[in-house]
Amino acid sequence: MQISYVDMVDHLREYGYYVELLEWRDYEAWLLDPNQPKNQAGMELAMAQLEGDGAKNSIYRFACPQTNEFLAGTPVVCHAPDREFFERMIDYAVRIGYFPKP
What we know:
Blueprint: H1 5-15, H2 24-32, H3 40-51, H4 65-71, H5 83-95
Helix pairs in contact: 1-5
């Protein structure tokens, strides 16, 4: 099962994080504006994003049919990326210090 980028952002918002989405052109203009203060680590991630496909609400979704085929007939179950899944992932990220508490 796959979800869109916007749905993923909605899960983060439901958890309590403020996430603002911009149109791609506006985001790029803000990112490249030297007069706007930005976090250095965040800038490095953002620049890598500009070089690749980037985090956007693309019609393309990650899929791994080889993994699904390999796991067929095994007791391994991939959890749907639903609200509960995101809450557990974010809880863990907060617990280990990867995300700040919202």
